[in-house]
Design brief:
Distance between the termini: 107 Å
Number of strands: 26
Shape: elongated
Number of helices: 22
Strand order of the largest sheet: 7-6-14-13-12
Helix content: 25-40%
Radius of gyration: 40 Å
Strand content: 15-25%
């Protein structure tokens, strides 16, 4: 039954089509035409390249770059200013909000006027029709084209709201020359935002797209002036202006010149060009701060250029968010570019110098390998052919780890890195988002901590701000931190995850201990004049200087801000005296003076333990430590050993000699705690610490196990030396160096069975050994013997 019904229906349809063939064709054509009309509107309506525009966090224009087709065409405006909208609608299309895309009355009036004059004197186009004409790129103004524009205008009214159509028109209307769009015109002709234009300026820009060739900045243009004033009169008649405003508006002159667009952050502009070409980018930059930092960089470069230092960069971050508040990638005046002023140093890899040392200090606190003030050896050191030197080429013998950090001593930190492990530290730096470490860890070796790797100011400021952010979140969130606390900075507003982190690259406690070390007032010897940088506000700061005086770094932070500074020459030329403190630190502190001071970091006590430590050695208290301090340490620090330098010594009743039970009864002995360093450390330590007391000698007739009163300084760890070959092909010499606990002792040197000579005071001996294995023997005037197996390898 159902099959019969379907067959009947099909027959009826066929019969209907045979009898109404023409109607069917008409309906089909209408359907196809409707389909073509519906899809006739291009999407997007405009595909022209646009200028790249950057704005501050409050909407101020920081800079713009011309579009790829040579036009100043800003990306579409988000809203049309009310004054300009009023002027435009009054001049072009008073019934814009009421018609469906065309105005029959206006078209009829235009047709009559054109017939009477025998030529086209009026178009009768609405703003929507003009918008369509602009999008069709100068099609001929014929009747047929006008009909197409009318059809597309109706279609556009369906796809866009009235306000969207106004925005498209204001963004793409021609304003003379290579200026397209309201925003670009406001800046090019009046030097300010379109929202800040006066009635006179808005009126001029409203009439200009109607005849864009009328604009001649700086020259008399009576026709443009008349058109502007007629529009102002019309605004007065419509009640938009009062009489006083009208008269004042007419007195305003036409533009006197074409303004250059602001270039407040030219290096950020170049970065945005690469990452967001053709977009309008609302950045996190504080416009006023950017201007002030620009001025400071100019001022400091005047002084630095006296020493042929031509480049400087400053990055200011919000510590909590990591957002860039000021971005000065180089000299703000890049016009001439004689000295690479156009190079954005903020993203350029440069040798790090000592600027990475705080991260190693924090890592070793977390690892429990050292406590904040644990003594670290500062003696001549050679590790696998690598011989680090302190900046001042001197040694302190032994120095607290915190002091080694804020005095930026190289040798103690290299020894710390050896203990911690290069691979582990390299991995930590990767976790801190240092993007320029593009070679394996063993390529850098121990030089990684002294400038053997390149970093950039962007990553560096991000790593320091991550430590600050960790402490801020720890305080604000009851000990919680978040997965993306450690991240690179950003010049774009962003929302970050609030997912809790289970582990962190660096703990809050270690970060706090590092900040406390860096806030100390003592500074490295090369940083003469640091006292002038001290202020009432607390700033944790660190400097760095690369080999050859090519890069001067300074990074400072408090709870609110991070300020990172680089000074040097973009071409890598070094200059005598170019150090982090002399060049970069003064600029850094001047920038801090622009910023409001805030409170200091809150100590994360939940992650830490307060323990007694030896006041002299910084180690946990041992049985013979007499003076103690109470110090906050990481919980892993509880596993460190007790003080190894304090020991109980047995003296005669006068206290002048050491004794043993073999020469004096225990009842007659005087037992005393004594601070004793190994010979090499002692040799240098007592030169800087006059209160250090060497152990007294043993009383005559008292025997004692051999005491380590001598120690070899070079060579040390692997007892291997390389003998250089001189230009004439003969082997060169090697300088062996030793330390003795007594400054008055004489040391007699022997190589194998050969006597070399004696030394006193400074124990150095030149030797000319042949390649192979040798034995070095040292005997002092008290009969103490020290022997060393020496491996000699020839080196071309």
């Amino acid at each position: 039954m159902r099959k019969k019904e379907h067959t009947l229906s099909l027959r009826l349809c066929v019969s209907y089509l045979k009898n109404n063939k023409k109607s069917f064709v008409v309906l089909l054509l209408l359907f196809l035409l409707s389909l073509v009309w519906w899809f006739s509107l291009p999407s997007p309506l405009f595909s022209d390249p646009t200028s790249t525009v950057i704005e501050s966090r409050t909407g101020e224009l920081l800079g713009a770059h011309i579009a790829e087709d040579g036009q100043w065409r800003f990306p579409d405006v988000e809203a049309v200013p009310e004054k300009y909208k009023t002027c435009l609608l009054t001049f072009e299309d008073r019934y814009f909000y009421f018609h469906p895309g065309f105005n029959p009355v206006s078209l009829g009036r235009a047709l009559i006027q054109n017939i009477r004059n025998g030529r086209v004197v009026s178009g009768g186009s609405t703003i929507t029709m003009q918008l369509i004409r602009l999008s069709r790129k100068g099609k001929a103004r014929t009747v047929s084209q006008k009909l197409i524009e009318l059809s597309l205008a109706i279609r556009a009214e369906i796809s866009f709201s009235k306000d969207e159509l106004l925005q498209l028109y204001a963004s793409n209307a021609p304003f003379g020359g290579n200026v397209v769009g309201l925003d670009a015109a406001a800046w090019r002709y009046f030097g300010r935002n379109a929202a800040d234009l006066s009635w006179s300026e808005s009126a001029m820009l409203a009439v200009l797209p109607n005849a864009p060739s009328l604009i001649y900045p700086g020259k008399k243009n009576n026709l443009l002036l008349q058109k502007r004033n007629r529009l102002l009169d019309l605004l007065y008649e419509n009640g938009e202006l009062d009489e006083t405003t009208l008269e004042l508006a007419k007195l305003e002159p036409l533009p006197e010149k074409v303004y250059a667009l602001p270039q407040v952050a030219p290096h950020l502009m170049n970065r945005v060009l690469t990452e967001h070409n053709g977009e309008r980018v609302i950045t996190t930059i504080d416009g006023d701060l950017q201007q002030h930092v620009n001025d400071l960089v100019r001022q400091h470069l005047v002084k630095l250029r006296a020493n042929e230092i031509h480049n400087a960069a400053v990055l200011v971050l919000n510590a909590a968010s990591g957002e860039a508040l000021a971005y000065v990638g180089n000299s703000p005046d890049v016009a001439e570019g004689k000295h690479g002023e156009q190079v954005d140093i903020i993203g350029a890899p440069r040798s790090s110098g000592s600027i990475l040392k705080p991260f190693l200090f924090a890592a070793m606190q977390d690892d429990g390998r050292i406590l904040p003030h644990t003594l670290v050896a500062d003696v001549p050191t050679q590790i696998g052919g690598f011989s680090p030197q302190n900046f001042n080429l001197s040694y302190e013998g032994a120095v607290p780890a915190s002091k080694a950090l804020f005095k930026s001593l190289n040798i103690p930190v290299v020894r710390m890195l050896r203990d911690y492990g290069v691979e582990r530290f390299y991995s930590l730096l990767k976790d801190l988002h240092f993007s320029t470490l593009n070679r394996p860890a063993d390529h850098y070796g121990l030089s990684l901590i002294l400038g053997g790797a390149e970093v950039n100011l962007w990553d560096l400021a991000g790593a320091y701000s991550s430590m600050a952010r960790l402490l801020i979140h720890y305080e604000e969130n009851d000990g919680r931190s978040f997965k993306d606390d450690f991240r690179q900075p950003s010049y774009l507003p962003a929302v970050y995850s609030d997912e809790e982190a289970l582990t962190n690259s660096i703990s809050a406690g270690a970060s706090w201990l590092t900040m406390e070390a860096l806030v100390q007032v003592n500074r490295p010897d090369e940083e003469s004049g640091w006292e002038s940088f001290s202020s009432s506000r607390q700033v944790a700061w660190k400097t760095g200087t690369s080999f050859g005086f090519r890069d001067g770094w300074a990074v400072g932070l408090d709870r609110n801000f991070v300020v990172a500074v680089w000074c040097g020459n973009a071409d890598g030329e070094g200059r005598p005296g170019l150090t982090g403190t002399s060049a970069a630190a003064p600029l850094m502190f001047d920038v801090f003076n622009l910023l409001p001071a805030g409170k200091w970091f809150t100590q994360p006590v939940d992650e830490m333990e307060q323990v007694p430590v030896c006041a002299t050695s910084g180690h946990r208290v041992g049985p013979y430590c007499e003076q103690t301090d109470s110090v906050w340490i990481m919980q892993k620090g509880l596993t460190t050993s007790a003080c190894p330098y304090h020991r109980l010594v047995h003296l005669d009743p006068t206290g002048q000699f050491q004794v043993t039970s073999k020469c004096l009864s225990v009842d007659e002995m005087k037992h005393q705690s004594w601070f004793v360093l190994p010979p090499a450390m002692e040799w240098y330590y007592k030169q800087r610490n006059p209160f250090y007391r060497s152990l007294p000698p043993f009383m005559s007739g008292c025997s004692e196990e051999v005491q380590a009163v001598m120690e070899m300084i070079y060579p040390r760890e692997n007892n291997q030396v390389f003998v250089p070959v001189q230009l004439d092909g003969t082997p060169g010499q090697v300088i062996l160096e030793a330390a003795h606990a007594s400054s008055e002792s004489i040391v007699y040197w022997h190589l194998d069975e050969q006597y070399l000579g004696q030394t006193s005071g400074l124990h150095q001996m030149p030797v000319h050994p042949q390649p192979g294995v040798h034995r070095v023997t040292l005997i002092d005037d008290q009969g103490n013997v020290f022997q060393l197996r020496l491996q000699v390898a020839a080196k071309d």
